[in-house]
Amino acid sequence: xxxxxxxxxxxxxxxxxxxxxxxxxxxxxxxxxxxxxxxxxxxxxxxxxxxxxxxxxxxxxxxxxxxxxxxxxxxxxxxxxxxxxxxxxxxxxxxxxxxxxxxxxxxxxxxxxxxxxxxxxxxxxxxxxxxxxxxxxxxxxxxxxxxxxxxxxxxxxxxxxxxxxxxxxxxxxxxxxxxxxxxxxxxxxxxxxxxxxxxxxxxxxxxxxxxxxxxxxxxxxxxxxxxxxxxxxxxxxxxxxxxxxxxxxxxxxxxxxxxxxxxxxxxxxxxxxxxxxxxxxxxxxxxxxxxxxxxxxxxxxxxxxxxxxxxxxxxxxxxxxxxxxxxxxxxxxxxxxxxxxxxxxxxxxxxxxxxxxxxxxxxxxxxxxxxxxxxxxxxxxxxxxxxxxxxxxxxxxxxxxxxxxxxxxxxxxxxxxxxxxxxxxxxxxxxxxxxxxxxxxxxxxxxxxxxxxxxxxxxxxxxxxxxxxxxxxxxxxxxxxxxxxxxxxxxxxxxxxxxxxxxxxxxxxxxxxxxxxxxxxxxxxxxxxxxxxxxxxxxxxxxxxxxxxxxxxxxxxxxxxxxxxxxxxxxxxxxxxxxxxxxxxxxxxxxxxxxxxxxxxxxxxxxxxxxxxxxxxxxxxxxxxxxxxxxxxxxxxxxxxxxxxxxxxxxxxxxxxxxxxxxxxxxxxxxxxxxxxxxxxxxxxxxxxxxxxxxxxxxxxxxxxxxxxxxxxxxxxxxxxxxxxxxxxxxxxxxxxx
Length: 738
Known about the structure:
The protein is α+β, with helices and mostly antiparallel strands. The protein contains 13 helices and 40 strands.
């Protein structure tokens, strides 16, 4: 479920930068359709390449009576068959055991020597927000103190609350912490936010509280919030996000908040941003996401009415403030005007912050780190006394420490107790302890404590093995795409795997939005697939960020077919190596990855025998009219631009469905409460299979948001359904079952 970038670079959290956020058979085609968060509209324009009207627009009515009746009928049919399979109950219990086990690392954040954690298990379905002293956290049995019991809160208030995080602020050293807690009814992106006092563990009476909306807030000071939300008709973008930022003072009605920045409805969204300097001074501002990948950052100086634009390129991401330097990563080449230097896309650079604040002009820019061809910068984390750089190298994560010497900036790799995938789990500019995550496909998660003062990384917590890895191996291979580019992929398989094409193989991909697919430990995948003799493949196709911005930009808009060619090349390479065959090869992907698997379903139905399509985009001629879809035209292209529409017509799974084709039996999964990727995509595609009497499975969680699961029990059910389906389709004993 990787289409987690709500509105482009403006919503990417950076250390030291407090951003706005911490998956009936016919009806007249000219029907009135209500699509959540989008205006009610009568759509009569031709939506299919041949000029025909779309006969299934009624399935876009998210909670329409006819649409939900169809959904419930499909759910009943699919659950009835897959849950009746002898494998299902064991798979469900295995998945539930993993997801609700106490043997999980309680990842958290540190505030005033306390570790804060959100925890879900079989008893606490909606979860607990809790804390414990750092010393206790390091023990085998931490003494947890509950802050909020969300099951209890939901019961008391009659809501299906899903915790979406907390934006916390300590006005002065030693003072109380104030938090804006985000709560979603059913898992939607739209939330309410309520002020919470950590010292009393209570919501603040007469404190800040917002109506439900897709929104963002940032603390300006203890009595002031910057807020972007739905202010009423005409105040949200075509993507359904806010474009007006206001300054809201404690004790005043939200309606009286003072407007400080206004974008346009053509923006993706505009979000409040506060950059916190090392001395605690807070620089108020906003990020105007002009497109998904370009943003204009604004500074709102105290006492001034006119905003000041930060002098950084539109394709760049602020990474925080360290030793007086404003750090940013580049997603484009940059030659700062009047300076004798030029920087490459992917570089990490910096300039003197105080000099900019004084002159309002761009100071001299210097290079901090330039990745080589096998590297990509993930981001920077600022701690008390150190700045850490997270990178990928040949698709494996590493953590480097930044330093400054007479010759300029230096990097040194943090020594870890073994080889594996490393990343930064927590860092804060006021805390000298950093949490590092360490894992691999076969190596359970470990949480390491990096001490800034000593420079040492030591084990803090580790998971026991949750599935049997005996006899398993991990390899990295390269497939050759249509333009000659070598596409890396990882495969986890049995060491004695026969190279006769019989191994059931699951190929996973994403390929979009500069999101990298890295090695990770999944006990659910291990128990339900690898232990059963299956092989798992992770494809690092273009569109992702594994090798920096260029790897992503190679597949934008009309160039997107190369992403699909990369994925096909990996599938064909697996077959050429004798690892598997089309009868035993399945694919899986969610969100943008759901589009990937949808395209693969219609472009190469001969290459795979199972297709799991999770919360997908599938109607690419209409996606921009549904929910947040308009925010993604920079990635996919705009169906209202003729040349871009012409390309989208060639790849859109919904429009390229062939009633005479011999498709493998697919499995579509989505969520009614997904207010990011519209459930109509999966519904309408499944409907095409239904009316042409082609076999398919369909499951729509009535709650769950974009993750398609509002709690761990639902996640376990979804996983069990998927792996039962895969076993039935791809194993020798199950291949005859549909």
